[in-house]
């Protein structure tokens, strides 16, 4: 008994969990502003107090270590309070994409089976219907309301949380206890859940901080959805760990983003290329004071080289980092730093501090630099595995590496280039075509604002190259003109045989183009 007691005390003294990161930052910088969300401003001490109150309130209502707590909300300070409160009691925080419909939410509820649900006004009805459809009946239902009563059967967030003690919870949490259940975006299939722990998340925070040039004096603007790990764990998590200040917006509206940067003298901002393109095209871009901006980040999809060049020309004092990764890595795997943005445009950079990356053949052989194969990773950032999907976990971790599903190649100096998704490689008439190469070619045409290239069925060639194009405002172009443009720069078999024009390409809220939807539309 004495040995067990001693082991518990030693473990408590050595603890470094997700909840610990906030408590320690609050001790270092109690009066520093942690979060600004509209009219709400919380210091780190106030943030930690709110987190403890919600954690203790959940415990009083019977939520215990390992229970899932579902969140359906746009970006708000309450979202972050919930994510850290659950971490402090060992509950598994399960954010849900707020764009999903009732049937889709019901599927995730059936899969995760939460003991508590938190929903923002505007999404409570969706959650209520999904609960009824799924047959899940959580004991705790909390609604984030602003100036109005909660829906029937739901308790207001403020009333529920502030009635409890602000004392630090005393739940013992091990490094690899699951704290987060993240669902993949489902661009290729139905969403699947991934489990992350304090160990994987904090290892990723350290990688982001070191290789992403982050510091405690950053003023960071967060406008991409928190339910996605890119915003939540590449930026919010490191900000809290460091003691930086976070400005919260519900979404990436270009005019509001630019006005917020100017108002709060924002120094740091992340967005996928689609959002950076929207900022460039905004009428407010030319007049906004963006002189405070020092650090820009992009990811989720490759940045078109022509867009990158324009951003660097328009914002010469802004350093850019390219973050490449996926949910399974919490999520960053490689980073291209500022000094290589132009000289190695299109590269995903080198593996981050806590990730080892290799190129693997189908038989498990590690390939030398210069050869194309599947990108695989290993390191403490990797997820614990897929939720309730042992076969999928076994397949993804074959040969002792995590298999990304991306094709890539290392150059002689160790920089990674992502050739394509394995599923996005087009095989036409026996020849392989990387969709990204064709996209980069078409982006060089002055009339092209956005483009997605993918395979579509063909009677003779089995598959052929298809392109969905959004034309830049004030320009005109035909499919034949784009084909001729590509033919001058690519082998004939790589030229799109089908070109269709769209006002906008379908995207998920994290900015990824939904090629699956385009494939289905073209196939019909």
* Radius of gyration based on Cα positions: 23 Å
CATH topology of the largest domain: Rossmann fold
The major beta sheet can be summarized as: 9 strands, mixed
Helical amount: 25-40%
The span between the termini is 68 Å
Kindly report the name of the CATH homologous superfamily of the largest domain.
ANL, N-terminal domain
**Percent of sequence in beta strands:** 15-25%
Shape: globular
The low-pLDDT segments are none
**What is the number of domains?**
3
Quaternary structure annotation? single chain
CATH class descriptor name of the largest domain? Alpha Beta
By CATH, the architecture of the largest domain is named 3-Layer(aba) Sandwich
Mean pLDDT over the residues = 92
Number of strands: 26
Sheet/helix structural class: alpha/beta
Tally of individual helices: 16
Describe the structure.
By secondary structure, this protein is of the alpha/beta class. It is built from 16 helices and 26 strands. The protein has 3 domains: 2-18 and 44-173, 3-Layer(aba) Sandwich (Rossmann fold); 200-422, Rossmann fold, CATH 3.40.50; 425-523, GMP Synthetase, Chain A, domain 3, CATH 3.30.300.30. Helix content is 33%, strand content 25%. Strand 1 (33-37) and strand 2 (40-43) form a beta hairpin. Helix 2 runs antiparallel to helix 3 (44-60). The radius of gyration is 23 Å and the shape is globular.
């Amino acid at each position: 008994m004495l040995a067990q007691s001693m082991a518990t005390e030693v473990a408590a003294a050595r603890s470094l969990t997700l909840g610990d990161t906030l408590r320690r930052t609050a001790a270092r910088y109690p009066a520093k502003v942690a979060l600004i969300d509209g009219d709400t401003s919380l210091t780190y001490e106030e943030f930690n107090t709110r987190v403890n109150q919600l954690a203790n309130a959940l415990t009083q209502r019977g939520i215990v270590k390992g229970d899932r707590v579902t969140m359906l909300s746009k970006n708000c300070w309450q979202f972050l309070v919930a994510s850290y409160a659950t971490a402090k009691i060992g509950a598994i925080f399960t954010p849900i994409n707020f764009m999903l419909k009732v049937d889709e939410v019901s599927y995730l509820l059936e899969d995760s089976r939460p003991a508590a649900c938190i929903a923002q006004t505007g999404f409570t009805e969706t959650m209520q219907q999904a609960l009824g459809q799924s047959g899940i009946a959580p004991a705790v239902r909390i609604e984030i309301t602003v100036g109005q009563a909660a829906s029937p059967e739901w308790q207001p967030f403020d009333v529920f949380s502030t009635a409890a003690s602000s004392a630090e919870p005393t739940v013992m949490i091990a490094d690899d206890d699951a704290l987060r259940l993240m669902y993949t975006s489902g661009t290729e299939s139905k969403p699947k859940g991934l489990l992350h722990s304090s160990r994987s998340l904090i290892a990723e925070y350290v990688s982001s901080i070191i290789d992403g040039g982050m510091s405690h004096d950053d003023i960071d603007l967060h406008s991409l959805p928190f339910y996605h790990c890119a915003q939540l764990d590449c930026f919010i998590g490191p900000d809290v760990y460091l003691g930086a200040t976070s400005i919260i917006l519900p979404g990436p509206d270009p005019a509001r983003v630019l006005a917020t940067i100017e108002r709060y003298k924002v120094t740091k901002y992340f967005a996928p290329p689609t959002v950076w393109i929207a900022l460039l095209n905004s009428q407010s871009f030319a007049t906004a004071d963006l002189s405070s901006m020092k650090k820009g980040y992009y990811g989720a999809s490759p940045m078109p080289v022509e867009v990158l060049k324009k951003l660097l020309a328009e914002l010469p004092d802004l350093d850019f980092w390219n973050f490449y990764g996926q949910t399974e890595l919490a999520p960053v795997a490689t980073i291209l730093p500022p000094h290589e943005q132009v000289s190695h445009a299109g590269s995903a950079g080198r593996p981050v501090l806590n990730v080892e990356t290799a190129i693997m053949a189908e038989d498990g052989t590690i390939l030398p630099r210069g050869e194309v194969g599947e990108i695989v990773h290993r390191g403490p950032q990797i997820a614990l595995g897929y939720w309730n999907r042992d076969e999928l976990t076994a397949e993804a971790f074959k040969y002792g590496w995590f298999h990304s599903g991306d094709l890539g190649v290392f150059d002689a100096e160790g920089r990674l280039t992502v050739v394509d998704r394995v599923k996005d490689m087009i095989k036409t008439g026996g020849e392989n075509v990387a969709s990204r190469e064709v996209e980069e070619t078409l982006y060089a045409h002055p009339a092209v604002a956005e483009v997605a290239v993918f395979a579509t069925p063909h009677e003779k060639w089995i598959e052929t190259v298809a392109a969905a194009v959004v034309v830049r405002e004030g320009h005109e172009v035909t499919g034949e003109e784009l084909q001729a443009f590509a033919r001058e720069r690519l082998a004939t078999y790589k030229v799109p045989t089908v070109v269709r024009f769209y006002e906008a390409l379908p995207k998920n809220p994290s900015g990824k183009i939904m090629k699956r939807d385009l494939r289905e539309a073209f196939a019909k």
